[in-house]
Amino acid sequence: MNILLTGASRGIGEATLLALQAAGHRVVGQSTAGSDSLIAADFTDPDAPRRLWEQAFDRLDGRIDVLVNNAGIFEGVADNAGDEEWHAAWAKTLTVNLQASADLCRHAIAHFRSSEAPGGRIVNVASRAAYRGDSPMHWHYAASKAGMIAMTKSIARGYAAENILAFAVCPGFTATGMVEDYIASRGGEKLLADIPLGRPASPDEVAETIRWLATEAPPSATGAVIDVNGASYVR
Length: 235
Known about the structure:
Blueprint: E1 2-5, H1 11-22, E2 26-31, E3 38-40, H2 48-59, E4 66-69, H3 83-114, E5 120-125, H4 129-132, H5 139-159, E6 164-171, H6 177-185, H7 189-192, H8 203-215, E7 225-228
Parallel strand pairs: 1-2, 1-4, 2-3, 4-5, 5-6, 6-7
Helix pairs in contact: 1-8, 2-3, 3-5
């Protein structure tokens, strides 16, 4: 399969890139800064998703079978911040975490509907915060991930008849640099007590879930949201 993966430079994204490549798929990855192997796209720029899609489309010889939206930011803002800071934080988080993913989903759906072999898959990486919320510093992060879940379900319901499938993954704390900093800032081991498994998920565990949804999950599972959070949130 030909796959476009955002947020591929580290953590879950890097692990997913390696897992998909090891399974024999062609993957074009994105990061904000880019590299010799990753396309640069800064999702604070509203035009970046379209440019990324077009570049990936060219690199993959005019066919993309799967879109994986993994890119995201996790930046806090105090509830007593000034209006300008508060609005800027919300705008940036919603633009990067939700709007860019929505734009890429829209490009993917248009492609999946027009290709000679109709259909394709979308996997959106959300968060348990979509369901259980997050800290007082991260209202906007939780809201962006809840929006991603609603978007995923809307796509699944709206396009299943055209063999366009959509899934979401909800990690909890994952052992990446971003989350390790957060855990340290919130009391370290005390925070881990909230995870019945006793540890964060590893990037490889989340990546394997993404790989399965992107390439092997049965079509009847479209719309599914899979939790990978050590039972720290169960539905």
